[in-house]
Amino acid sequence: MAPAKAMKASKAKKVATKAMKGQKAMSKGGLTGELANATELKKAEITKVLNALAEIGAGEVKKTGKFTLPGLCMIKTRQKKATKAGKRIMFGKEMVVKAQPAKTVVKAFPVAALKSQI
């Protein structure tokens, strides 16, 4: 990578991190307020809808391992294998690691429509 491109990339990264630090994530109450203004429904009704969506999504992820919120994200599960205890070389040093059981990891991925909007 050329020095000029590297400087532009690092500058863009700094600007992006400053923007992320400056604002807080929207709370559930804030989300219900915004949806109430957009749809002309009561906040209580929207809260019920959000709770039902969370329950349906959790059940679907548990049952099939995949749930998609159209236009927003896809939630997937992945199985991680168990690891044995022993000695491993990490960062140039030999370390003793404990055994880890197998586990299910849940991840969310942005949908292509969201990527194109940002």
Short description:
By secondary structure, this protein is an alpha+beta fold. It has helices spanning 3-22, 28-39, 43-64, 112-117, and strands at residues 66-69, 73-80, 86-90, 93-97, 103-110. Strand 1 and strand 2 form a beta hairpin.
Using brief descriptors, characterize the structure shown.
118 residues, alpha+beta, HU Protein, Chain A, 2 domains, three-stranded antiparallel beta sheet, two-stranded antiparallel sheet, 5 strands
Taking all Cα atoms into account, the compactness measure Rg is: 21 Å
Number of strands: 5
- Output mean pLDDT: 85
In terms of DSSP E residues, the strand content is 25-35%
The secondary-structure class comes to alpha+beta
Q: What helical percentage do the residues reach? A: 40-55%
Q: What can be said about the biggest beta sheet? A: 3 strands, antiparallel
Number of discrete domains: 2
Q: Order of SSEs, N→C?
A: HHHEEEEEH
Biggest sheet strand order reads 1-2-5
Give the N-terminus to C-terminus distance in angstroms. Answer: 25 Å
Apparent shape: elongated
| Sequence stretches where pLDDT stays below 50 over 5 or more residues | none
Number of helices: 4
Topology:
Layout: H1 3-22, H2 28-39, H3 43-64, E1 66-69, E2 73-80, E3 86-90, E4 93-97, E5 103-110, H4 112-117
Antiparallel strand pairs: 1-2, 2-5, 3-4
